[in-house]
Input
Amino acid sequence: MLTCVIIDDDEINRLTLEHYIGLTPRLELKASLADGIAGLAYLREGPPVDVLFLDIEMPHLNGLEMLRLLRNPPEVIITTARNDFAVDAFELRVTDYLVKPFEYGRFSQAVERVRPRPAGAPDAPAGPASADVFVKVNSRMVRVNFDEVLFIEALSDYVNIVTAQQKYIVYTTLKALEARLAVFPTFVRVHRSYLLNTQHIESIEDNTANLKGGYYVPIGKSYQEGFFKGLSKM
Output
């Protein structure tokens, strides 16, 4: 059983979430609150909960501002009518991001991403339940499973995110994306122009990593010592 709280200033949205929670046997609703200030007080002073269903656009204190003020937030599922806050939300390590209106099936999928807290475990900051990260491709926010990413290549003001099946051209820098992927230890900088996912290395020859799908990534001279030292510990 997962205890949960709703914080959303829209009454219809709160009622919808309350209904969905009532349909889900593993969820137990503890509070349904209409603004970020009340939500902040409840989460700071009340009993710990497992899941927070959080709207973003609210008066006085928006959802992301509220989340930044919490020292030990529960796992967070964002529920919002806007898709342009996804990057900021996932940088705060939310579990999922639901764009209103959403059906019960999508709600259930988000709940399945929540990891139950072991009995007696201390409160801990929310962390990603999967390797999914939203990136902006042209005008769309696209969910990319970074477990499937082979490598990331810098292209001036863009990066090329490469999987075995697809490539994503994203307007960001390699340095900025490297910071966002710090929670994924398999991604390492091996060249000033490349981030490499070490779990997809098939072999290394002449300071070149050979990857699944016939891809090759060079290992820069200044990165070789640290890379090989880290590789020996895997």
About this structure: The chain has a mean pLDDT of 86. Helices lie at 11-22, 36-45, 63-68, 86-91, 104-112, 174-180, 221-231. The radius of gyration is 20 Å.
